[in-house]
Amino acid sequence: MPIKIPRAHKKSAPKSKPKGRKFAFQTPKGMHDMLPADFLFFDKIEKALKKIVCYYGFERIETPIMEDARIFERGTGMTSEIVQKQMFTVKTRGGEVMALRPEMTPGVLRAYVESGLSHVMSPAKFYYLSPLFRYEQPQHGRFRQFYQLGFEILGSDEAVYDAQTISAVYRTIGELKLKNIMVRVNSIGCKTCRATYVKKLKEYYKNKLSKMCKDCNKRYSENPLRLLDCKEEKCQPFKAQAPQTLDYLCTACKHHFKLVLEYLDEMKIPYLIDSTLVRGLDYYSRTVFEVFIEGLDFALGGGGRYDYLSETLGGPRMAAVGAACGVERIVEAMKLQQIPSLVKNKNRVFLVYMGDQAKKKSLSILENLYDAGICVKEAFSKDSLKSQLRMADREKAELALILGQQEVFEDVIIVRDMQSGTQESVPLRKIVEEVKRRLR
Ligand code: AMP
Q1: 147 CB under 6 A from ligand 1?
Q2: Is residue 142 in contact with ligand 1, taking CB distance under 6 Å?
Q3: Which of 15, 210, 351, 407 is a good FRET partner for 280, with 20 to 30 A between their CA atoms?
Q4: Is the per-residue pLDDT at 12 higher than 50?
Q5: At a CB cut-off of 8 Å and minimum separation 6, what does 235 contact?
Q6: Interval between CA 202 and ligand 1 midpoint (Å)
């Protein structure tokens, strides 16, 4: 007996976010699941990134999620907040201390040297889109596991690469149509001129410490540059009057910074010189920068030059520059500016079956359709015709292909236009052509 098809249902999909249900375990503190709807944003960002890296000639790199903890202790620096407070460390059964990577740069540099690529690709331009881990106090825009997209240019001290790194960040964010992007840029000089500056800075702060916060007192002895990083209210007036890095740059660093700014001008990238910008990681030298979006109280990304990191890690002398952006923060900015995510891939065809024989036969039909590049949704876990059609309706499928026992015997399939409700039997051998024709 041919299948009697019920009328299409007009019950639409629930609009609000579904409510979570009780479960014995939750996501670890400060970490989050990435659900299909999140990937519509993530994939859009990845698409923008891939377009920009193609223009600029960056190649993808990935490193293990864990590294020897010492690479961060020595590289990122013992006085950095990341190493002091935020590393997830793991002691292996063999007794090694590993760290879940809190940032990508030291690992990328290690991979570049260890693989021998540094002999054949210099400068090398790498990009990544990878998860990182920091044991932070979770708060708005700050997670314990988060994604960064980033760029590293290894093997050159040319100022043009500083500008290109900034531009890669700027263009990636711009590609997403984010507006009001602000780049703050500064130079913290090389080893030599920075030493003079730090001396001046310490002299300036010396008799102000009793009025300053506890962290600043610690920074004074451990990493004085970071005194300029302080966000405490009571330290702000001192910070405002502090000596500025730019006034102490040596001739070579001054020239380098001037070139960076000229190249940014040439690329029409708007920037602001921020003499208090020093960044939290120990390894930076010369150019440092951060990227903001108006209305968000955290940076979207940041980076800088790190000409001494390779040597610090026992590698060859190698100048380099890099930048990273928080993907979750980009998503936040997109939501703030009402920039849509990608649209969920729509399956225009829905396959409906009735009975075990039809279910089995459906599999080869689906394979044929897949081979022809046609995406088809099914609901094999539902037996009733009514609920399968209801689902096809909810998915807003244009065509339903309906297969029952009789159709299997007769080697045909019913093609139903979901909009008009009209339907016809089509020989199975012609189904691919017929679907293609109707979808055109
Ligand atoms: P950093 O590696 O500290 O220079 O950070 C670069 C960018 O990564 C920041 O500007 C943020 O966008 C992002 N980021 C850093 N830490 C976190 C975090 N805990 N959660 C989310 N995003 C972060």
Answers
A1: no
A2: yes
A3: 210
A4: no
A5: 212, 213, 216, 227
A6: 28
